[in-house]
Amino acid sequence: MFHSQVFLRCWKKVSFVDAKTGLYGVFGDPVGHSLSPVLHNWFMRRFGINGVYMAFAISADRLQKAIQALPTLGFVGVNLTIPHKEAVLAYVDHCDLQAEIIGAANTIRIVDNRVDAYVTDADGFVLSLHKQQQRFHNASVVMLGAGGAARSIAYALARLQVARLAIINRTYSRAESLARFVRERFQLPDTKALPEGEQLEGLSSADIVINTTSVGMYPYTSESLVKDPRVFHNGQLVYDLIYNPSATRLLHDARRNGAEIQNGLDMLIYQGLVSLNIWRQDTYELRAADLQELRQVLTQELAAHE
Length: 306
Ligand SMILES: NC(=O)c1ccc[n+]([C@@H]2O[C@H](COP(=O)([O-])OP(=O)(O)OC[C@H]3O[C@@H](n4cnc5c(N)ncnc54)[C@H](OP(=O)(O)O)[C@@H]3O)[C@@H](O)[C@H]2O)c1
Hints:
Elements: H1 3-13, E1 22-28, H2 36-46, E2 51-57, H3 63-73, E3 75-80, E4 94-95, H4 97-102, E5 107-111, E6 114-118, H5 121-128, H6 133-136, E7 140-144, H7 148-159, E8 164-168, H8 172-185, E9 191-193, H9 199-205, E10 208-211, E11 237-240, H10 249-256, E12 260-262, H11 265-280, H12 288-305
Helix pairs in contact: 2-11, 5-7, 5-11
The structure holds NADP nicotinamide-adenine-dinucleotide phosphate.
NADP nicotinamide-adenine-dinucleotide phosphate binds next to helix 5, helix 7 and helix 11.
């Protein structure tokens, strides 16, 4: 390859920082393994945005000061990850309706010195489904987990007009309280918590099973919440929000028993894209080739951390 070609290829990948560079980032604790800087700096290069995205380790007791400093420092926007998604709502000037309903935010936009909060996990989940979206209409869904991510997924399920939702959770009272919340706030009347005795039957008869818990995530890759894989079958879709490993034990078991599977990598990508569109007030889209490249870049980044 000629030197000029090498130079051109490098040139396309380098982002220059100058006096007009927009500041973006993620606040979390811990944040050292976050994929968001790789994801968003890839977006910046792909879409020709003069911006830089960094990870900031912000402890819970410093969140308020960090949020209040954003307009002064000239940030365009930040993402929030564990443990700040719910606490941040107390420190913002305005909360988007979806974030208010879900009770959490993962995206902050600074506009005219005002701090606005949004949540993009539900949109990210819906976009990650691609052509599978139709399968959710009138479907019977079992969701494992009742934490923060589960709340966004339940919101998305209501929008996708599933017929019924059953929630399985280690702490049963949290499943009950999320089910009540979903019935009342998301207008999904056929939502209930599944007690232990009804879980096998519930899983076997579900069209779609979604894991929103962290069970099975690296390094605990041999774990799965579904102890009897025979509940999985042909015609079922099993979705795991976890993307590391790319196929959890749950997904392996489901695939072996004939179910279709999907991991959480595309949801991660699309929730990030929705954040970018909020910050930039734009409509950036990913082509198939972009998505393919991003999946590879993020998978390599994950492998480098292990
Ligand atoms: N792909 C994406 O874009 C994306 C986006 C958001 C989140 N996520 C993933 O979703 C997962 C959950 O995140 P979150 O924010 O919802 O966390 P969270 O609010 O802490 O909720 C954790 C959930 O997992 C359950 N759980 C945790 N450890 C368990 C165990 N050992 N046995 C049984 N249940 C257990 C909890 O049950 P209890 O109620 O009993 O504690 C709760 O339902 C994480 O793996 C996160 O990486 C992925």
